[in-house]
Structure formats: C-alpha cells, structure tokens
Amino acid sequence: MKEKFLGGLLVFLGACSFGVLSSIVKTAYKSGYTLGQVTGVQCFLGMLILWGIHFIVKATNKNKVTNKHKKSSTKKWHVCAVGIFPGLVGICYYQCVQLVPASIAIILLMQYLWISVIIDFVIFKNKPTPIQLVTIITIIIGSCLAAGIFNQTIKLNLTGCLFGFLAALMYSLFITTSSNIGNELPKLEKSALMITGACIITFIIFPPLFFFELNIDDKIYQLGFLLALLGTVLPPFLFSVGIPKIGISLSAILSAAELPVAVTCSYFYLRESVYLNQWIGVIIILLAIALPNLKHLKK
C-alpha cells in the first residue's frame, strides 16, 4: 500500500512540474527575454543535466550493464531525431503562452488527448472505441468552456490558438514515435538523446548567438534552469519510477493534474482572470480523462 501511495505521489508531482512551466515562461517574457532565449536556454541546460546524470550513472554502474542495453537494435540518431517533436512542442507552446493567457494555453495543449486517438487510427488503423469517441466529444466541449469561447469578455488571439494546436499535434506525434523507438535503451540515455535532438532543432530555428549577448548572472539562466529541471529532467524520472507502481490507468488520471495546476498558477501567480465557466470546463476535461480509466481501476 505504501509503495502504491509513493508511486501515485511521484506521478502527481511529475504532472505538477509540467503544470507550472507556463507561469515560469510568462515570468521570463515579462523580464524582457525572447522565445528563442527561453527555449534555447531550457534545451541546452536540460541536455547538459541529462547527459551529466547519464554519464555519472554509467560510471557508477560500469560493471552492471545488462546485455539488453548492450545489444540495442535502435540507431541512436533515430532516437535523437524523435527529439525534434518535443523541441517543436516547446517552441509552439511557449509562443502560444506569449500570445494567450497561460490558463488557455494549457487547454490548447491538452488537445493532444484526442489528436493522439486520430493519429493512432490514421497510422496504425486502430479504430477508436465508443468510450474513446465519447471522451473526445467531452474533451472538446470542456475545452470550449475552459478556453472561454462562450465568454464575450475573453478575446482569443487566433495566432496564439494556432500555435497551441500545433503544440498539441507535435506532442501527439512525440508520444506516438517515442513509444515505438528506442525502448530497449536505458531511460536516461534515451531521454538525453531526445533532448539533444530537441536542442538541435531549437538552435536551427533560433541560432544560439544570444549566448554571447547574455551575462552569466542573467535571470534567464535561473529561469531556464527551473524550466529544464521541472520540464525536462524531473517529470520523466518521476513517471518512470511511479507509473510501474500504480499502473497506466491511475497514472493517466493523476497526470491530468497538470491542467488544474497550470490554471491555478495562472490565477494566483500571474493574476490572470479565470471565470467560473472556465473552471467548469477544466472539471469536464478531468472527468473525461478519468472516466475511461475507472473501469480498469476496478479490475
């Protein structure tokens, strides 16, 4: 029982880590930093941290490497290429956060839930089940409420919404590719390779010339470290430890904590307006995520 509680706590904390990212990004923008600086510093520091941890663990367990890890059939550049998707997720999502309230940006990102079902059908020919179709419709209805579409006092930036949907699409593609490539590699190495790919695509879009313009004590490095820690390093580790202890179904429910945490942070920390109908929309989305998994939890 204690082990399951610990596993659930770790998954919940991992989701909460993701939930605070948008508020940190908003803080960076208010401090005068650009999209390229925010995404570039986060990816670069995240890459350094993950590779550092990987080499330390590898050196510590030098004589304990399993044959499974030695005989990897996946080319490492394939795993690195998968990192293009999380790199684009960061760029599109942070651009969205710059143009729309953080509470709405996270709603747009959560559309990956139904986009993933469509991708699964188009690519792998897996037809959605009736409960999945009901879930998709419920998520769309909840998202309309949560985004304040029916609230005349909220004016949505269409460009920001487009970047939000692009972020959701890229995240769906990342889930699809990462779950099918490089699973035999050590988790740390796989994560480090993917963040390297994310860093490469980020620096192609935003050449890292800004590093020469920044001082070592610039605030962006503190914010970038927080983004790297809470968005790149901690969540994958917490999920990899916690999910096996409690199972995928309960993990899906607990990981949805990212949504209310992001909305709550935007309300209390950023002082953004969040109306009653938006909270109702958030609750509807959470129910849509939870209900399909309750059947498995009973088993």
Offer a quick outline of the entry.
By secondary structure, the protein is mainly alpha-helical.
Question: How would you describe this protein?
Answer:
This protein has 299 residues and is an all-alpha fold. The chain has 15 helices and no strands.
Radius of gyration: 19 Å
Strand content: under 5%
| Main sheet attributes: strand count, strand direction, barrel closure | none
**Count of DSSP E strands?**
0
Taken in chain order, the helices and strands follow as HHHHHHHHHHHHHHH
Molecular shape: globular
The parts where pLDDT drops under 50 for at least 5 residues are none
Class by alpha and beta content: mainly alpha
Helix-residue proportion: over 70%
Mean pLDDT level: 89
Number of helices: 15
- Gap between N and C termini, in Å? 17 Å
Which keywords apply here?
299 residues, 15 helices, 77% helix
